[in-house]
Amino acid sequence: MTGKSDQPTTRDRSSCQPAPFLNDAGELREFLLCSASLDVAVWDFDGVVVDSEPVHASAYRDVLASRGVSPPSGFFLPYTGQTERAIWTGLAEEYGELGNYQELRSERIRVVATQLFAAPPNWFVGVALAALEALGTRSVMVSSGNRETIDEYLQIWDLQQSFDSVSAASSGADVAPKAERLTALVAGKSGLLIEDSPQHISLAKRLGAVAIGVEHSYNVGADWHADVMLRAGV
Questions:
Q1: How far apart are the C-alpha atoms of 125 and 45, rounded to whole Å?
Q2: What angle (nearest 5°) sits at the alpha carbon of residue 55, between those of residues 222 and 173?
Q3: Cβ count near 203 (within 10 Å)
Q4: What confidence tens digit (pLDDT) does each residue in 151-179 have?
Q5: Is the predicted pLDDT of residue 17 greater than 70, yes or no?
Q6: Is 233 exposed, middle or buried (0-12, 13-18, 19+ CB in 10 A)?
């Protein structure tokens, strides 16, 4: 990774007044330059690296349908950003016993894989990763999703070398709540969070981090407190 001595010259954030939404690569690079020296950039996966929430919603619907459940339109909105275990727990509370968690998880991952792995990364991913590397800022991933799915996606789209680490639940073990993992990474540091959850954006701001929110079809109209916003898409 590029050393600090090779960094582009950063700019004083107080002199930068970006638009609420960054609409192209130039605006995104300019904002990152204005964010001054950053120790770490923390990325979410679902909805951020890839516009995956519609794909996940469809997969949960298919697994529910295989068990005789027909959820209404918009059923997945309250579950966006939650862990898979939390989602299945909530769905079981709504629709009754659905079966063994590991079986539900395995079935859903099989359903989602084909569509998800074919979906390209959001337009801003490569731009931001390259700019952050040039600034000497390491990128890490902290997700509520499934580690195996994330690892395969990153490998397919040649992104695995761009992240120093990936924190997500695996088939063999859960992880600490996402808020705890984010806090450990950015508290007391010069950090950046790129995230599609307004809740986690608010946490990052309380911890003193720079926050970029990502808007997609499952969080439009949310109460954002991000420094700037990006729109998902390719």
A1: 11
A2: 90
A3: 21
A4: 999 999 999 999 999 999 887 677 899 99
A5: no
A6: exposed
